[in-house]
Amino acid sequence: MPGEGAVINPFETARKQIDIVCDLLKINGGTREILKSPKRELTVNFPVRMDDGSYKVFQGHRVQYNMARGPTKGGIRYHPQVTLDEVRALAAWMTWKCAVVNLPYGGGKGGVVCDPKHLSQTELERLTRRYAVEIAPIIGPEMDIPAPDVYTDSQTMSWIMDTYSMMKGFSVPGVVTGKPISLGGSEGRGEATGRGCSYVIREAAPHAGVQMKGASVAVQGFGNAGSVTAKLLHDEQGAKIVAVSDSRGGITNPAGLDPHKVEAHKVKTGSVLGYPGAKPVSNTEILEMKVDVLVPAALENQITAKNAGKIQAKIVAEAANGPTTPDADDILFAKKITVLPDILANAGGVTVSYFEWAQDIQGFFWPLDEVNQRLERVMVRAYGEVHKVAVERKVHNRTAAYVVAIQRVVDAIKVRGIFP
């Protein structure tokens, strides 16, 4: 359901966001230009043998946006609509996401223009391995560490890790994250985005006047991040999940839904629709419900200038990337709605990816409880730092998160200086 702004160039949006914060922090000249420019971009066109013996040429990109704070980190997506500007924007946002939670990373992103739904498993493997070879000169544990994204998964990462390792002559598990446990993946990675989001909601609740025990929660997008967030808010914080949705539509029950049973129903039927004892509700209606916490965990551009005035939640926690447009941010701020921005609220995923990389580098792996405790410390500290800036500067949390992130990158650029 792309809303208004779906045709806007995402990289132009990313650059505008940088300008807003640079104005606020009085950053000008060359430093601003560095912040608005990707460091390195690689576009590759490569042939893949199809199952019928024919060859098809695919285009792929890898963008390393900023390396001032360390190697770049970011996913690889397979999608027919992948563009270089989209990958640039996503790499920029990864830079700020890593910085806001203080990981020693810059941001990167990759993509291949393809429709994975029309490729067989063997064609996907050949495409992935050839793309890995093409970008191999600029990736590695000390340079750029890919991860899964849209229509890629742990199997994709396994193929990339194996291909890169074959070229090196020895196993290099730290070249990617999001791997299976058997190849050096981390415990807790699968639920990290939702778990991180639940920690940030818990920390924000007192400031937003919300008592989490018994609080009403609506989740738009009952996929990985949305379902994990719902289950943890229900199980660990005593919240009441009153509505959830997926791409086909939503369900609601004011008395509360059991997210575990809803998930089992979705696994069985392919959708949350038809869950016993719940009424159908549209994705649009879910956004406008009178609830304590709204979790947009689906697509971008869901809360826009058109519907922001109808949002009634006290907290909007962005488990998805870019669900709220800049115009809508101002409207929600004026309504005193607490927005927990994506670069903070869903940074649990990249945080546990960082943990996976650190474990791979040292060849020493942590149990699940240690991963979760470390994740909680990172998310709690990051929320506190963002909230402090928001209060001091009287700005909304998104601007505050960008201030924290961009200031960290600027500090790194300045202290390193310009070579030569």
Descriptors:
420 residues; alpha/beta; Rossmann fold; 2 domains; seven-stranded mixed sheet; five-stranded mixed sheet; 14 helices; 12 strands; disordered N terminus
Describe this structure in words.
The protein is of the alpha/beta class. The chain has 2 domains: 147 residues, Rossmann fold (3-Layer(aba) Sandwich); 149 residues, Rossmann fold (3-Layer(aba) Sandwich). Helix content is 45%, strand content 18%. It contains 14 helices and 12 strands. The chain has a 7-stranded mixed beta sheet with strand order 9-8-7-6-10-11-12, sandwiched between helices. The chain has a 5-stranded mixed beta sheet with strand order 1-2-4-3-5. The protein is globular.
Topology:
Elements: H1 10-25, H2 29-35, E1 40-49, E2 55-64, E3 72-79, H3 84-100, E4 106-113, H4 121-135, E5 144-148, H5 154-168, H6 192-204, E6 216-220, H7 224-237, E7 240-246, E8 249-257, H8 259-269, E9 279-281, H9 283-287, E10 293-296, E11 315-317, H10 326-334, E12 338-340, H11 342-345, H12 348-362, H13 368-393, H14 397-416
- Major sheet attributes: 7 strands, mixed
The CATH class of the largest domain, by name, is: Alpha Beta
Query: What is the average per-residue confidence, as pLDDT, rounded to a whole number?
Result: 95
Oligomeric nature of the chains? single chain
Give the low-confidence spans: 1-6
Number of β-strand runs: 12
Tell me the β content. Answer: 15-25%
CATH superfamily of the largest domain: NAD(P)-binding Rossmann-like Domain
Question: Strand sequence of the main sheet, in spatial order?
Answer: 9-8-7-6-10-11-12
Written as H for each helix and E for each strand, in order along the chain, the element string is HHEEEHEHEHHEHEEHEHEEHEHHHH
